[in-house]
Amino acid sequence: DGISNGIQTIQAANTGLTKLQGLTDQLKSVAQQALASANAFSTKATNTSVALTGATAANLLSTGPTQAVSDTAIGAASATPSSATGTAAYTLNGTAANNGAGTTFGTAAGTYTVSINGTATATIAQNATATDVATAINLLTTTTGVTADATSGKVVLTGSKSGAQFTYSATDAAVFNNTTLNTASNGVASTAQTLTVNGTAISIGATATVADAIAAINAQTSVTGVTAVNAGSEGGTAGAIKLKGALDGSGTFTAAGSASNTLGFAAGGATVTAGVFSPLPTSLATALGFTAGDNFTVNGQSVSIAATDTVTSLAQKVTIATNGTVSATFDATNRKFNFTAADSSTAVTLGNGSTATAKVAKLGFNANTTFAAGLGSGSASPLAGTSLTVKVGTGVSTSFTFGTAPGQISNLTQLNASLA
Fold first, then answer.
1. Are strands 326-331 and 147-149 parallel, antiparallel or unpaired?
2. Which pLDDT score, from 0 to 100, does residue 11 have?
3. Taking the model in full, what pTM does it have?
4. What letter would DSSP give residue 43?
5. Mean pLDDT of all residues in 35-43
C-alpha cells in the first residue's frame, strides 16, 4: 500500500510539471507575439555623426581621392638659379697704322680726332702714343659704350656688353689706314680666352660664338654646379650668356673672364648671389635641377625626364606612366606639384631615381614618401585618433578608436564587428 501511494504521488507531481511546461510554452508564445508587434517596445536608440566628407564603407578615414602635395614651394631663395649676363664684344686688333711697329702714331700729318659711335674725341696730337689715343677714347666710354686698351702697344677697341655694333673712324687716314667709317660686330672673340667658374678654368676658343661658349661652360656643369643658356631663351637679352647656379641650395657662384675677354664677364671676377626662381608651367624640367635622362617613380612606375620636357609635360608623363591611376598638376601660384590618385583606395608613393640629381626633392617633396589612401587634402583624416564610447542600458562602457593601427577601426565592417 505504501509503495502504491508513493507511485500515485509521483504521478500527480509529473502531471503538475507537464501542465506547468505547457503553461510556460504558452507564455513563451505570448512573449514572441509581443516582440513581433511594432507597438510592443520603444524605438531603438540611434545616433548619427556629422557628415564625413569623402568617407566610404571601405575607408571611413577617407577625405577623398588621395593627394600628394609638395611639402615646400619650388624655387625658394636658397635653391634659386642666379645669373650673370654679358654679350660677346668684338675686339679690334692690328688695324691701326704702325700698330705692329711701335706705339707712336708719328705718321699722322697733324692733329686729328677719333670718332666712336659718332662721338668725336678731343684733339689728339700728331705724335700721340697708343696710350694717348686709348686715354682720349676712354674719356667718352660713358657716352659711346666702347673702351680702349693700349697695353699691347696697339689700340684695342672693345664694344659694350649690350650686343650692339659700334663704329669708329679718324680724321687722319694714317690712324686706321683710312678715314672710312668702320663697323665692328660684337659676337666673335679675337683670341682664345678663359672663363673661370667656381674655380674651374674653362677654355673658350678664339672664334667661339655665344653658342660655343655656352656648350663649353655646360660641359663642366658636373664640376662647377653652374649651367649656361642664351639669355634670350628666358626673356633676357638675346645673345647674352646667362649663368645659372645649382638648385641644391648652394645659391652663390663666382665667374671671372680673362683679360680683354669678350664674354661680358669681368676679368676680376664677380660673385653672383641667388635671387628667386619661380618656375612657370613652360619652364624646362632641367631648370628644377634634373638632368636629362633622370627619372623618379610614382607607385613603382618610372617617370623619365627628357631635355625638352617642361614642367607641364613632366606632369603629363605621370598620368601616362601610371596608366591613369595617378595624375599630376603644377600650381604655378604656390609653386607646388599635386599628385592625385583616381580614387580614395589608392595610395601615392614617390621614389627617387638612381642618379645623384634624380630626387623627388626637386619637385618639392622632402624625401621618398607615401601618402596614405583617401587623404584628399594631403593631411590626416579628422576622424583618425578619435574614439567612440558605447554603453547599452546599464551595461559596461566600451570604447573604439578610429585609425589604421592594429586594433583600430578604419572600415565599416570593422566598426559593425566591434559594436556587435
1. unpaired
2. 87
3. 0.46
4. P
5. 63
